[in-house]
Amino acid sequence: MKSILDQYKSNRKLTTLVENRTTYSADYAELNIYETNDYAEKVALTFDFPVIASMLTGKKVMHIEGFEAFDFFPGESVVMPRSKEMIIDFPLATKNSPTQCLALGIDAFKINEVVEKFNHHVAIENENNNWSLDKNASHLINNEDVNHLIKRLTYTFTNNNKSKDVLLDLMIQELIIRLLQTRAKTLIINDPDQIFNDTRIGTVVKFIKDNLTNKDLNVDILAKKAYMSTSHFHKQFKNTLGVSPIDYINSEKIKFSKKLIKASKDCRMSEIAFKSGFNNTSYFNRQFKKMEMITPQQFKKSVSFD
User: Fold this and answer.
1) Nearest CA-CA partner of 185 in 139, 251, 241
2) Which residue has the higher pLDDT, 258 or 181?
3) What is the mean pLDDT of residues 192-209?
4) CA angle at 188 for the pair 254 and 232, rounded to the nearest 5°
5) Residues whose CB falls within 8 Å of the CB of residue 75, separated by 6 or more in sequence, listed in order
6) Which residues contact 178 (CB under 8 A, 6 or more apart)?
7) How far apart are CA 241 and CA 187, in angstroms?
8) Are 152 and 178 in contact (CB under 8 A)?
9) The domain 1-106: what is its CATH number?
10) High-pLDDT (> 70) share of the chain, %
11) Could you report the per-residue pLDDT of 28-78, keeping only the tens digit for each?
12) Which residue ranges run through the membrane (predicted)?
């Protein structure tokens, strides 16, 4: 991302110290890079189109309706509906260390077009599971797929290429789908009102949670629960949630293992792996590092035990 920001900085014109805006346009989308070079508070920002805003450098404090005020760091994004206000503080911005953020605006027509295609492909017979990027804002943390797309989009926006608009169109479609999958996953997994329990994917997610430590849990069993063939279930699950059934199961087991590690200072990792539903300690270690970027032992060392 540094090389991309260097390219932007070499061309941008600094006309204000707070939220200096540089705009790049394309079919169906607009990329705005904002740079703040001085301390500021309560800066209001709204857009006439839905946007995804991602932090590039520095820190903001975000005030958005429906959320407690939160710190906003690089690697994080917020999805904002059209005309929804953000109030922003810039506690660390200086001329030598500016706070930089991008806001990618997407035409509502393009969003609706992709949403319609997405719902057609993930539709399950006799189930009302149409997903949308609705009026609620979302805060995304450590979403690698979205972050990777944001970097590619920024690079393509800020560089001249004969195929620029075509490439951006494809990436924007992918980004919308990733956001829809993220929303579907969040709603189904965090389902306090249990409104998705009577849907096939919702039923499977609940079954996984209830049988997480069952070492015989596999895709064939889940497919039977969903009354689908194994291949169709695998495709349907991944299309809806953005992850394969096995990756989802492993991610839930790793979350559970972290709770066990925090709760037991003297427990061996082989025991943690077994209690978390893993048959193999080596596989547990690999999955833990893949998802947490550190080993189970390193995680344990970072935990403060009373």
Assistant:
1) 241
2) 258
3) 71
4) 85
5) 55, 141, 142, 147
6) 143, 145, 146, 149, 242
7) 10
8) no
9) 2.60.120.10
10) 86
11) 899 999 999 999 999 999 988 888 999 999 999 999 988 899 999 988 888
12) none
Angle between helices 2-11 and 144-157 (to 10 degrees): 30
- 97-100 own/partner pairs: CB under 8 Å, 24+ apart: 97/57, 97/58, 98/35, 98/36, 98/37, 98/57, 98/58, 99/35, 99/36, 99/57, 99/58, 99/59, 99/60, 100/5, 100/33, 100/34, 100/35, 100/36, 100/55, 100/56, 100/57, 100/58
Domain boundaries, the chain: 1-106, 108-188, 200-303
| Residue 1 banded pLDDT, cuts 50, 70, 90 | low
List the structure tokens of 125: 């017979």
pLDDT band at 109 (very low <50, low <70, confident <90, very high): confident
CATH domain 200-303 topology? Arc Repressor Mutant, subunit A (1.10.10)
Residue 293 corresponds to which tokens in the numbers above?
């970027």
What phi-psi label fits residue 94: left (phi over 0), alpha (psi between -120 and 50 degrees) or beta? beta
